[in-house]
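**User:** Hello, beginner here. Are you able to go through the protein record under this note? It all follows right here:
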Amino acid sequence: MQLELIKGVVSDVRYSNGVSRGMDTTDQSNAAIFKLANTPVSLSLSAPVMIDEGNIVSLVGHRKRGIFYPRAYKNETLNVWGSKPGWSQILFGIPFIILAGIGIYIIWDATQNLKARRELNL
């Protein structure tokens, strides 16, 4: 899957967040659905998404069925950024290499996130 860089002005922003609880953990997800230069975007991260109407934003990710799914973003207006996990996910995936392809997939996914950060100079 090829990573793509897009940049533009944010419009039509909607936010959503959720919490899921496991036995010993609580995970938070934060999502922003918006348009960037008329491209529908769905951005979901564990950290808050710092994007607002009229901000100039750069995104690196991929398209699927007409929607752009970023792995990393940089808000040029607010000078903030966010991304999905990188090195921590690689370290987490190494022990799982033995189990079929789970570890390989986790490491591949993390390297895609790191490439997205590099594309935005983060």
Strands lie at 4-21, 26-36, 39-45, 56-64, 67-75, 80-83.
